[in-house]
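Practice problem: predict the structure.
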Amino acid sequence: MADFTHLDGRPVHFYRGREIIKAHPEVKQLMGKNPWTALCVCGLVGTQWAIAAFASDLIWYWVIPLAYLVGAFLNHALYVASHECTHNLVFRSPRANKLLGICTDLALVVPSASGFRKYHKMHHQFLSQYLRDPDIVRHEEARLIGNSALRKALWLFFFSVSQALRPMQITETTFWDRWIVANLVIIVTVNCAIIVVLGPQALAYLTLSTLFALGLHPLGGRWIQEHYLTQAGQETYSYYGPLNKTCFNMGYHNEHHDFATVPWNNLPKVTRLAPEFYDNLVSYRSWTAVLWRYIFDPTMSSYSRIVRPAVTVEE
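Answer:
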């Protein structure tokens, strides 16, 4: 029966970050905040609302390619900006980061920022621990997907649904809190306002942009790139291709897990500062190639992940 790859001990990030600091103490200068990210969020949301207004006057079937070719990139960038807020990498105040995270949802349709903040922190704390790391699928889901290229493609297309249901498997924390309620109320209100002011087709454009940003799209290769096993023993993988310029360097995933307090603009500097720690690791230059391999390689599935025993990991 198929299963995950089981390893003992802590992820390498727990040790490598400390080793890099010993070898290159100047890496500490790269840690901090980047408030300019907030301006980027305003620009991305404003651009998406403007395009949504434009889409409201299009023949409906043109909305789909517009969302796939343009909107997906903008909403994917907003999700990554929300990720920056989750790690408090924009402002000094956690409250301000939480509020900006909710602002990223203004064009995403789905009120996800506050929930993502809660569960993504668990991904870092409990990396690769089954039923504790929300990024690990359950056995039932993995067996359902199996090795079928069609089922893997469908799973990627509806990846946002899979992600939204993951918190249901986490029992160590409760889902609802005042921030998640506020997030829900604000985004539902904004969605209703978009329908009233711009029309339902505008909201359909934004919804499709989110579906494609998190699904079967070249950007979707990121979900496989980050932690799916293609090199024995290597738990995390980075992407160094050109699409990093569209998503706040989100491809630098080894670097991010090694130093979660380094904002997006400084992640490439970590790689350049400590090449001896990263050059020997498997990495990628194409998210499309990663996506293609996952779908059509029968040896890859949702079980292509490392799973570790339950040990608290502080990064």
